[in-house]
């Protein structure tokens, strides 16, 4: 069996947006002044990655890298909440590693059914029924649904083989896998013949194990030289490492001992992305091409040195097939031992959501893009701004109240912000009009609220630019319906 796989794909995901809340007033014959009855918007659908043992490659993502989940529906009058958007499940193979474009590992998907929330749907906005309070009996506004998360992620499939072959280019790795298994990889006398890993299934008596043939390694690989990191990535998961050493090379500066040192050196320099050091991984040395008389002689010569280093050494030839049986059974034994030590199979159906963040805080910093401006950061202020319909003064007033209650205004004053200065929260910039200290009104009626007057709605390009300038730690967006009620909780407290 030979499995050739596309082992890396960049995907672009868009979760569904939340539906807007509805502002509606109950109307009935003879009852002209009913209460607010606008329902909440539905939650946007998530984009999920789900491990499916029936999927073996990332090929589909190669052809279809874009995926989008359904949007939540708008709330409606009569207290009808909008339906949630449909989540999208993308099937990925066992052993898929999810990374950011910067290479940060987000998840390592093992176990059938394991699910990763790759892009979180936006929250639906509260309708005016949910926003009503004693102080605000009939809110003339509702909250907007939030946009769904958009994410570019990298998927990598790391070989899950039991045995990983490593060696210089042309050492005979592909040849070895071809004689030990039914795999028929490309074999040629030029370096880097193998560009993608090949998996072979090897049988040693009762033991059946997989072997991965990976591209050749050259010094500097751990720093990305040759196929470098691509190569190393694939042996991270292998329980047993086999150094395949070419005893018949005439290349200057190459001999079995220095080849082995170079390979070990690269391994030591490589930091596995999955955090599991390869130092303690069992390894054996295969001295290949002993069908060549000079090579056989050299192998005999270096064997004691290698053994003195504690290595198990096998002299083989993939051409004459000598030494193969012994090697196969020895590998089978080691694989059995590592299997026995391995913890029990992972439970299935784990759902990996982005870690919950403490979203209660906020911070204010001088705006790097404006000498007199400030930038307010925090999951809640940013979310509240996104939820605000700026064409509705009452909604803007409500935002002002929320920010006030959180202490944003107080903190701005403490930092010496001057009235009229520009304050940016998320994608919006306001002129700051502080309310009189000590006389903060929590009750915004209908009509204009002078404290927050939105200047302009910035264009996407401006936003991007400003974001770049202000770049710093960002909060993981998203969140659950729980935080939605959370906002309302402190409202309740205050009431
Ligand atoms: N004489 C002899 N030649 C061998 C033996 N094993 C492999 N070769 C030759 O060595 C060359 C390289 O073999 P491959 O199996 O392609 O080597 P590789 O390690 O997979 O090389 P890359 O994929 O480039 O890293 C080929 O020309 C093979 O025919 C052997 O046991 N004896
Ligand atoms: Mg090869």
From TrEMBL:
GO molecular function: GTP binding; GTPase activity; magnesium ion binding
Domain OBG-type G residues, every copy: 161-336
Region Disordered, annotated ranges: 66-87, 445-495
Membrane-spanning intervals of the chain: none
Metal-binding found in the keyword field: yes
Cofactor: Mg(2+)
InterPro entries named among the record's database cross-references: G_OBG, GTP-bd, GTP-bd_Obg/CgtA, GTP-bd_prot_GTP1/OBG_C_sf, GTP1-OBG_CS, GTP1_OBG_dom, GTP1_OBG_dom_sf, OBG_GTPase
Bias (Acidic residues): 484-495
Domain of life: Bacteria
Domain OCT: 354-434
Residue ranges, compositional bias (Basic and acidic residues): 448-474
A GO cellular-component term linked to this record: cytoplasm
UniProt record, GO biological process: ribosome biogenesis
Localization (cell): Cytoplasm
Keyword Transmembrane part of the UniProt annotation: no
Residue span(s) of domain Obg: 3-160
Top-tier EC class: hydrolase
Stated role: An essential GTPase which binds GTP, GDP and possibly (p)ppGpp with moderate affinity, with high nucleotide exchange rates and a fairly low GTP hydrolysis rate. Plays a role in control of the cell cycle, stress response, ribosome biogenesis and in those bacteria that undergo differentiation, in morphogenesis control.
PANTHER family: DEVELOPMENTALLY REGULATED GTP-BINDING PROTEIN-RELATED, MITOCHONDRIAL RIBOSOME-ASSOCIATED GTPASE 2
Complexes and interactors: Monomer.
Family stated for the protein in its record: Belongs to the TRAFAC class OBG-HflX-like GTPase superfamily. OBG GTPase family.
The protein's name in its UniProt record: GTPase Obg
Organism field: Prauserella rugosa
